[in-house]
Automatic annotation (TrEMBL):
Subunit structure: Homodimer.
Species assigned in the record: Halocatena salina
Signal peptide (residue range): none
Main location: cytoplasm
Family under the similarity heading: Belongs to the diaminopimelate epimerase family.
Residue numbers annotated as active site: C82, C223
Keyword Isomerase: yes
Superkingdom in the source lineage: Archaea
Keywords, alphabetical: Amino-acid biosynthesis, Cytoplasm, Isomerase, Lysine biosynthesis
Name under which the protein is recorded: Diaminopimelate epimerase
Keyword presence, Amino-acid biosynthesis: yes
Cited InterPro entries: DAP_epimerase_DapF (IPR001653)
Class in the EC hierarchy, top level: isomerase
Annotated metabolic or biological route of this protein: Amino-acid biosynthesis; L-lysine biosynthesis via DAP pathway; DL-2,6-diaminopimelate from LL-2,6-diaminopimelate: step 1/1
Length: 287
């Protein structure tokens, strides 16, 4: 049995495991406990499973403390980056250390995070439309190209996203169209599919968001890299002007994205849901 905690960032939920604990088969562990029908169950709720497992190696000797983050997704793959995952990792590390500033090492690079009373903010780096970075199976950036029934713009915000602006996100059958765009031949490594619609009733730059996530292979309640992708694509397409603050509203809450010449930041709430003990399989012996 190992101790685990459950965190979520605006509904994007993760099982958090201290990497100092031995999990012989991380892939099998994630597949088992993230399953939305048979996985980890939250007490007194109908919530089952998770959007991934965060294995976090805390290095307290640094100032600010560092966390090496490995995100294993429900299909057993390892994600390069996850905006809400980084924010949850920072909140967990802040509980362990008392620090309000953390450095989170991901496969996409190191991200600085700041933990406040109600908000965790993380520096997300510079979004890229470069076809080699996204990556794309063509030599030019993919800007407002037609794939299936969506007009998408491809951007990498730590992971690849195909962003489509639509009249109303509620009118899109994302369960049908998501897999088609996610697996389109133009994306050799696949892509997250993020749709956005402008909220005309609220002042400023406010977008509704839905995302079909690669590795989860389903729609999630929130996606941090997707929120950043919306802001980046909106700026590229002239839907917002200059250095702006963009509010993105997925199903699970509200995220704030700030764009500047130095990169982008992502901010929103994080909460610990509960803690429990889970059994892990014994290491396999080779005779």
């Amino acid at each position: 049995m190992i101790h685990v905690e459950k965190y979520h960032g605006t509904g994007n939920d993760f099982i958090v495991v201290d990497a100092a604990l031995t999990v012989p088969d991380r892939r099998a562990f994630a597949i088992k406990y993230c399953d939305r029908e048979t996985g980890i169950s939250q007490p007194d709720t109908e919530t089952t499973g998770a959007d991934g497992v965060l294995f976090l190696a805390l290095e307290k000797q640094y100032s600010p403390p560092r966390v090496v983050m490995t995100l294993v997704q429900p299909d057993g793959s390892v994600a390069t980056m996850c905006g809400n995952g980084v924010r949850c990792a920072a909140a967990w590390a802040a509980e362990q250390t008392g620090a309000d500033e953390l450095m989170i090492d991901t496969l996409a690079g190191t991200r600085r995070a700041t933990v406040g009373d109600e908000t965790v903010r993380v520096e997300m780096g510079q979004p890229s439309f470069d076809p080699d970075t996204v990556p794309l199976a063509e030599e030019s950036p993919l800007i407002e190209a037609s794939i299936d029934d969506l007009t998408v713009t491809a951007v990498n915000t730590g992971v690849p996203h195909a962003v489509a602006f639509v009249d109303d996100v509620a009118d899109v059958d994302l369960q049908r169209i998501g897999p088609s765009v996610r697996n389109a031949s133009v994306f050799p490594e696949g892509a997250n599919v993020t749709i956005a619609s402008k909220d005309a009733e609220r002042p400023g730059h406010v977008f509704e968001q839905r995302t079909f996530e690669r590795g989860v292979e389903d729609e999630t309640a929130s996606c941090g890299t997707g929120a950043v992708a919306i802001a980046a694509a909106a700026r590229r397409l002239g839907r917002i002007d200059g250095s702006e603050s963009v509010t993105v509203c997925p199903e699970g809450g509200t995220l704030e994205v700030t764009i500047s010449a130095d990169g982008t930041t992502l901010a929103g709430s994080v909460a610990q849901s509960y803690a429990t003990e889970l059994p892990v399989a014994e290491p396999r012996r080779i005779s």
